[in-house]
Structure formats: structure tokens, C-alpha cells
Design a protein that fits this description.
- This protein has one domain.
- Helices cover 0% and strands 55% of the residues.
- It contains no helices and four strands.
- It starts with 7 loop residues before the first strand and ends with a strand.
Amino acid sequence: MENPDVAIQGIMIHDVQGRVLVNQSTPELSKGDTYIMTTTELPAGVYYMSVINDTGVVGKVPLVVRK
């Protein structure tokens, strides 16, 4: 992520067409915290995971789901 010191408040997963498939609030996470989320409901494919704080999206990374 661009600034790992920013507290994370949510995670969104988008498909390659930009549709939001998962919009999940998280307990407030800080640098070094771990958060585990399951992707079993997603079919195999390429997605993008956006990390959100109180000012908006702070990072976007590709996510590959393999079955």
C-alpha cells in the first residue's frame, strides 16, 4: 500500500470490469496488523483489492484466485 501507517477501515474486491463484488468493513487495522478474509465465494480469476481508510482508497493491488 502507498502509506502503510494509515489505519485500514475496509476492503473492496472488484472484478476486471470494475464491479464491486465484496465490500467488507474491517476492525481498524494499523501497520503490522493481520486481517484474514476468505475468497471461497469468488470463482477462479483475476480481481483487484482496494484498501480503504477514512479518506478513501489508499491502495489497490491485483488478487489472483485459484481453485
